[in-house]
Design goal:
This protein has helices at residues 46-51, 53-59, 94-106, 125-132, 199-214, 260-273, 292-295, 307-311, 316-332, 349-352, 373-388, 418-423, 465-468, 475-488; strands spanning 2-3, 26-30, 63-66, 70-71, 83-87, 110-115, 145-146, 169-173, 179-184, 219-222, 280-283, 303-304, 338-340, 393-397, 499-500, 508-513, 516-521, 527-528, 539-543, 551-552, 556-561. 24% of the residues lie in helices and 15% in strands. The protein has three domains: 26-119 and 208-232 and 261-480, Alpha-Beta Barrel (TIM Barrel); 125-184, Oligo-1,6-glucosidase, Domain 2 (Oligo-1,6-glucosidase, domain 2), CATH 3.90.400.10; 497-561, Immunoglobulin-like, CATH 2.60.40.1180. It is α/β, with parallel strands linked by helices. The chain has 14 helices and 21 strands. The strands form five sheets. It has an eight-stranded parallel β-sheet. The structure holds 1-deoxynojirimycin. The site of 1-deoxynojirimycin has 9 residues, from loops.
């Protein structure tokens, strides 16, 4: 066995205009409020993102996906959109968005924007118009208004509960001051659901797509992509002993994953296809795995997040299943699968893996939960290296390349997640803490004023970009090298099949991709490197853990090149 010493060149960008670039792209999720703050108000912004594009280029990603930066009262961190075609002043202006897209393109980076079609903000002018117009009006028909049940309409139209806890209906006061109709909101009260039975809603979103396509967006990440079409007649759901909608294992609430939603993608696909440059959409659809092929393909969406991989627990069987099944399903419809381990809605994977594999996670990380930080990071690095060796598109969440942990000790009064306020759970703020760029600067270089909308923990200092830059073995350098090698070796492409290796020591997952063999040691002991199958003379391309001659370090991944 030999070890490669050559450093990764600084950049590894896609060829300009590479066709169907999204099939094997590495996409970096930017959460604008927490990435980089140019104006010093403590909230990240678009000029901040633009200023950091060279960092993304050097990291070696192909595209960035921007979480919403549109006009919004920010009751759900921008996933409550009041104007889909304007930029919230907190984040900048339309010309800042244009500038960002143009600079990204100059540097060979594609730009994916978020589109939120299930609901708007209650401050959207069309919702305000719906409130002002009476029951039965065309304005009300843009949203899902219904009369209440009970003698005086005092009960909600059905028993649906919100994803953010509490009822999914809110009763309004009519213009004349009387208690009135109810409107549906699968999320917060401030996020009324659009009525996708209404052709005017379809027209509105076709325009929104074209607006951003005309401005140069290379694609869309579709929020709650399985949610827009509700079951006919809005029937009651079965509820469990806690009065919550019953969701049997492996299924979804009654208001998600209804077949009508597929027609929306069939309507949108030709719009995207009519533009040059392989514009794409990726769906945020938390659906049962077997439903995936319905959503993606040549006439529907290009790809959908494969959340099964994110949910798979540490272990050979769990991870293997989470790789094999989605590949098989996506291959059946000639679509690429995707891989993702972290995003702005889940506990960061450097923390998740610090818990025992059977640990039951809640919504966010509670202060009384104590993962093993070192173990978590070790396994997170190993899982990331495994992910980056697989064919398809890989989605990274800002800060995972630094090994950032979830932050547990945010004071409740600073938490902004509506799920925290409505449900009393810790919520998702812990994965949204602003990024540390410089170890010794105020706000760790996130903001020139030292302000930060959420406090950053001391543990972020040693993980700052400048503390890891050029440091062999740092998580940042591991990601840079892995992204470089992934491109050089064509690992994202589907033409080299994924072959699982048998006969490995217990606790080792092995995957062959052409000449590259990926070994994951899921045990807490060093294990001898297998020698069969040409591995004895293999060259170590990259390792997530300490490199030990003739061995794989505990909880670590190795990429080997065989002759
Ligand atoms: C999914 C988004 O990722 C999440 O942040 C948001 O709260 C919900 N959709 C509602 O838009």
């Amino acid at each position: 066995m030999t070890t490669t010493a050559s450093p990764a060149p600084a950049t590894a960008q896609p060829e300009a205009g590479a066709p169907e670039w999204w099939r094997d792209a590495v996409v970096y999720q930017v959460y604008p409020r927490s990435f980089a703050d140019a104006d010093g108000d403590g909230m990240g912004d678009l000029p901040g993102v633009t200023s950091r594009l060279p960092y993304l280029r050097e990291l070696g990603v192909d595209a960035l996906w921007l979480s919403p930066f549109y006009t919004s009262p920010q009751h759900d961190a921008g996933y409550d959109v009041a104007d889909y075609t304007d930029v919230d002043p907190r984040f900048g202006s339309r010309s800042d968005a244009d500038e960002l897209i143009a600079r990204a393109h100059e540097q060979g980076l594609k730009v994916i924007v978020d589109i939120v079609p299930n609901h708007s903000s209650s401050e959207h002018e069309l919702f305000q118009a719906a409130l002002a117009a009476g029951p039965g009006s065309p304005e009300r028909d843009m949203y899902i208004f219904r009369d209440g049940r009970g003698e005086h309409g005092e009960l909600p139209p059905n028993n649906w509960t919100s994803i953010f806890h509490g009822a999914a209906w809110t009763r309004i006061t009519e213009a004349d001051g009387t208690p009135g109709q109810w409107y549906l909101h699968i999320f917060d009260t401030t996020q009324p659901d659009w009525n996708w039975e209404n052709p005017a809603v379809h027209a509105l979103f076709r325009d929104v797509l074209r607006f951003w396509l005309d401005r140069g967006a290379d694609g869309f990440r579709v929020d709650v992509a399985h949610g827009m079409v509700k079951p006919e007649g809005l029937p009651d759901a079965t509820v469990n002993a806690h009065g919550l909608i019953d969701i049997p294992e492996g299924e979804v609430p009654i208001y998600f994953d209804n077949d009508g939603v597929l027609d929306i993608y069939r309507e949108w696909r030709p719009i995207l296809d009519a533009y040059e440059g392989d514009r794409m959409m990726v769906l945020e659809a938390w659906i049962p795995e077997h439903r995936l092929p319905l959503y993606i393909g040549r006439e529907e969406a290009h790809q959908s997040f494969n959340f099964g991989f994110l949910q798979a627990r540490w272990g050979v069987e769990t991870m293997r299943a989470a790789i094999e099944k989605p590949l098989e399903l996506a291959d059946a419809v000639d679509a690429p699968t995707t891989w993702v381990l972290s995003n702005h809605d889940v506990i960061r994977h450097a923390t998740r893996y610090g818990f025992a594999p059977d640990y039951a996670f809640g919504e966010g990380l509670g202060r009384d939960e104590h993962p093993e930080a070192e173990l978590g990071l070790q396994r997170a690095r190993a899982a990331s290296l495994l992910m980056l060796s697989l064919p398809g598109a890989a989605y990274l969440y800002q800060g995972e390349e630094l090994g950032l942990p979830e932050v547990a000790d945010i004071p409740d009064e600073l938490r902004e997640d509506p799920a925290h306020h409505r449900g009393g759970v810790p919520g998702r703020d812990g994965c949204r803490v602003p990024i540390p760029w410089q170890q010794d600067a105020p706000a760790y270089g996130f903001s020139p004023s030292g302000e930060s909308w959420l406090p950053q923990p001391e543990a972020f200092g040693p993980l700052a970009v400048d503390a890891q830059d050029g440091v062999p073995g740092s998580t940042l350098e591991m990601y840079r090298r892995a992204l470089y090698l992934r491109r050089e070796l064509g690992l994202g492409r589907h033409d080299a099949a994924v072959e699982f290796l048998d006969g490995l020591p217990e606790g080792v997952l092995g995957v062959r991709r052409g000449k590259v063999v990926v070994l994951v040691n899921t045990t807490e002991q060093s294990l001898p490197l297998p020698t069969a199958g040409g591995l004895a003379d293999a060259e170590v391309l990259i390792a997530s853990g300490a490199q030990e001659a003739g061995a794989i370090a505990p909880d670590a991944t190795l990429w080997l090149r065989t002759a």
